[in-house]
Structures are given as C-alpha cells and as structure tokens.
C-alpha cells in the first residue's frame, strides 16, 4: 500500500473524487466482530490523490475513515496491514501513549477493490487551531510544542516512527491537549528529487491550499545535483506545477542513490527518528510563526543543497530566542547531528519549557484521559482535588485558604458525579464523624466487614442503623454551622472548636473565598505561568457538566484561578464561558455565575480598545433579566454584585475614553513617514 501503488490511474478507471463515490465504497466496509461499526457517510473532508478522507457516523460515535482505492487488482496490502496492526498494538494504550491515536481499524472492502482506515474524529487540528480565535498565547504554544516532543518520545521508545508529521496530523482538543494521528508507515520513505510526482501524490495537502513541506531532506534521492535543483531553480510556480502533475502521468521513479552526506539511501529504506525530528521542527516553527509554512517543495530542495537564506529569515522572525535556537538545531541538514525528542525536551527545560511542565502539569493533564477525568464532572473534581498543588507549581503561591475551601468541597462530594458521590458517601461520613459518635461508627464498620456484602449486607438492622447514624451526623453538622454563624455575627475572630472536623477545616470558608494576599500584585503584572492551561480544561468542562454542584465548583475554581491570569485571558477566555451559564436552569448556578463575572472583571486593569464596549454591548444586556428573576437567591446575588459591577463599568468607560483620546492624538504611520521625508528633504 503506497510503495506498490501506481502513481497514475489506468485509462479506463474512474477517479474517486466525489462524495457519492465515497458513499458507494463505504457500503463495502464491513468490520468483523464490531456490530457497532456500521459506517454512515457524513461529510467529505479531503479529496487527496492517495487517500480520500470522509467523516462518518456509527454507534460508537463520529469517526474519520480514509479510503484507499486499489487500481491494480493484484496488489497485495498484507504488508501494510501487518504494519498497522503492529502500530496499533504498540500505541493503543492511553496510559503509556497519551498523545498518540493510531488507526483502530484496517479492513479490506468486500469486493477487495478498496481499503479502509478508521480512527477517532476530532473537531480541529493544529492548523485550524492556530487560525481560530482566541489565538494561542505564548505559554500555550510552548505547551503544545512540549506535547509534540512527548508524543515523539512515546512513539520512538517503542520503535514506531510517524513518517508524515505536519500540522494537519496534529489534533487539538478544546483544552489544548494534542494527539499525533495518521501514521504513514505505508508511504514511501524515499522520494526521487528529480521527479516530484511522488511527493505531490503522497504528501501534498489534499485541497492544495497549503504549500507546506515538512519532509526531511534526506528522504529525497537523485542521480546528480543538477537534477536536484531543476525544480528549485525553475520559474514555474508551485500551483502551475501541481496542475501539470495532476494532468500528466509521471514516469517510473528513478532508484539511483543520492550523494548527499556520503550516504546512499534506497527507495525501500526504513523511517528513522531523525526524519520525525526534522518534521516536528517544521511544525514548531510554523506554530510560532503564525501558521505560515516554513518550507514549500522548491524551498526545501534549495535548502537541501545548502541555501539557508529563506529558512534563516523565517527563524529570525520568531521572537523567542531559545525556540528559534531549538528549531534551528532540529532542522540541521545532517540528520546525524539532530538529537532525540527526549534530549531536546531536557536540554530546553527552563529556557523554553517551565520545569512544572514535566514535573507536574503533563502527568496531571494525562489523568483526564485515564482513570480520573473521562466525564466533565470528574474533570472538575480533579482540579478541585489538586488545587493546592496547581497553584503552588504553576504560580508559585501557597493559597492555604483556597486549599481548605476546595478540600471541603471535595469532602462534601461537590464537583463529582452522582455515582461517585453515592459510592463514597458512607466512607466520608465515617471519616468526618466526631468523637461523640465514634461508637455508632464502629458498629457500622463491623456491619461492613468482609463476608457480609458491604454496608448493605444481610444484617436486618443495617438500614435502621444507617439512618440513625446519618441523622446524628446531620444534627451534628447543623449545630456546628449554627455555632459558626453565631460566632461570626458576634465579631469573633474564629469559631469555637467543636470537633476534630472543625480543627481540620479551620474557619468555615465563604462561598467565593477572596484571592490570596499577593494576588493584587499579580493582577497588575502577572508573571508568565501555565494557569491558562488548567483554566482551558475548566472552561471546556463547565459547559458539559451534568451535576449543578459540579458547575458551582467549576465557577469557584475559575474565579479563584482567574486571579492569577492576565487581563487578556480573563476577558477573552474566561468571561465568554461564564456568560454561557447565566441562563442555567439551576438558580444556584446563575447566582454563582454573576458572582464569578463580577470577581473577574473587577480585577481587570489593562483594557484593549477592542474590548472597550464589553459592558454596554456584552455583559449588561446578558444581566437584564436578573432583577426580575423568579428565584430570590438570584436577585440577592445580583444586588450584591451590582455596586461593584457599576464601579467597574465606569472604570472601563474612563479607560476606553483615554485610549480613544490617545489614538486620536497619536500620529499614524503615514503621517510619521511623511514627516520623516519632509525632514530629510529639508536637510538636503
């Protein structure tokens, strides 16, 4: 498959270039032992020369299917099938390879004239994400580059090489976790340099809209250097060349070896780690260069002969010096000088990648894919559980008050799904019981001993005992809260010590605890940190939570962690997600949302002119129904927040007026150029 496929179709064959033909071929796709894999055509994603890409629906969800049309009935695909089976066996474990998604299905059609590759579908790839608002921040770009290197480590450590790394093959989730997909072991390793037909057939973008080329230079071979530079030095455009190549069947490729670096690669050789490193360097360079291609095919061929001008001019535009240095090293022409992915990650820790990327953040975010966070409610619970370490590792702040508050939320079961809450309510109740009820707890523990079927075992008195224990716990908690409220109303500095649970929690935390002492300074000029990465996870999970308590915890986490973010993140990333839950069906969620918005906008100090009308055009219209809300708690929350909202709105108006005045009096670039020209003429 690929190496054996003909580049030109027979004269009597029909090119697969329409959605209707894809539907017809999909009828031949039958996956044995997978009754849920009944593919239904949904959309045509790519009409490439080599593979056709379609989006399909099945009982397991939305999937992407790549269709290979056989033009030679005698062509055998057993080698490709074996390679893909080996790849799936090595990379299918999410625990060991959390950044890799291999093809899960490779099947031949029932008529044996087409092959089908099936993998999970994603909403966006890296190319789409780079050009989608809100644009990626610098720390997010570094996080994606870090994950790319980790993905290469996961593959290369198992002896697997990708072969076609580019922006379109890097999938990005809504919380900026990346997956390396569409492995290409069936594509040719080496390509003739004097005949680009193979490159355009196998590696060119299906819609020909992008001219990016990230194939390693050592993968091209040819008979001499004159043939190498024929396309590079020609004046024909890449678009015209592609049109000619699509109309004209290419001659059989030459197998003559290349003289580059005193090596003689053959067309049937194997992929290497250095080839993937070069391609990854291209992707990272494009990531930090606004998605613009680093190479096209003519530029890459010139670079292979030693012309470094075009590449160096692009790398000089990357403002981050260490990133430019790392990419320059990854793009070395001599593949033997390139390092491994692990070496690049370790060498550029501190200069590019913060230490917490590897020591904490990567392992924490990987939990979302494995045991802890498959559901949005469970993801909120994960952030709640690790709140103290998140703030300490990513921001360098020891937020003891927030840690106490979210530990209390965790013990109460808030932020988790109902099943988890039900499974653990007894254990939490036993752990939180104070000493006056120790005897009742011991009786219940003996009831839950092994051999009796757990807490709901065969003991006939189990349910009455459970009810009495729960009533005792509820009465104890009610009395404790009553004493805390009475102590607070008297102005006492701390509530009286009533139980072991109160000693652990300290003072009862407020629904929205204030930021730590150093948050004001950080709001003015926050240091670079990765808190935006965790906030992306929270925001993407908030809209899909099923339990109202999870939404409440998520809003409180956003408000608390948002104090450590910069103003652009608060306005562009956090506010839109919180605004979505203003019309939630649960009154407590609506009240928490208005409080969260108030806390976020009140600490904004730097307001860009583009966001000057955020209050009159965005926030205030969304709050017009709060004064007449049917729930009294929502009206009370709105009344509490209204003074601070009014003050913040006035401050935003003053800032926007000052920015407009400055823009009016600031000379434009044209006026500045005219003044410079006039001064120059006067001197002459």
Automatic annotation (TrEMBL):
Keyword list (alphabetical) reads: Kinase, Repeat, Serine/threonine-protein kinase, Transferase, WD repeat
What GO CC terms are in its UniProt record? late endosome; nucleus-vacuole junction; phosphatidylinositol 3-kinase complex, class III, type I; phosphatidylinositol 3-kinase complex, class III, type II
Q: Where is this region: Disordered?
A: 239-264, 435-461, 477-527
Pfam name, any one: VPS15-like_hel
Q: Which protein is depicted?
A: Protein kinase domain-containing protein
Q: Does the keyword Transferase apply?
A: yes
* Keyword Cell membrane recorded: no
Matching entries from InterPro entries are given as: 2AA_helical, ARM-like, ARM-type_fold, HEAT_type_2, Kinase-like_dom_sf, Prot_kinase_dom, Ser/Thr_kinase_AS, Vps15-like
Return one GO MF term: ATP binding
Which residue ranges contain the repeat HEAT? 574-611
Q: Name one GO biological process term.
A: late endosome to vacuole transport
Which domain of life, per UniProt? Eukaryota
Residues in domain Protein kinase? Answer: 39-357
Annotated signal peptide: none
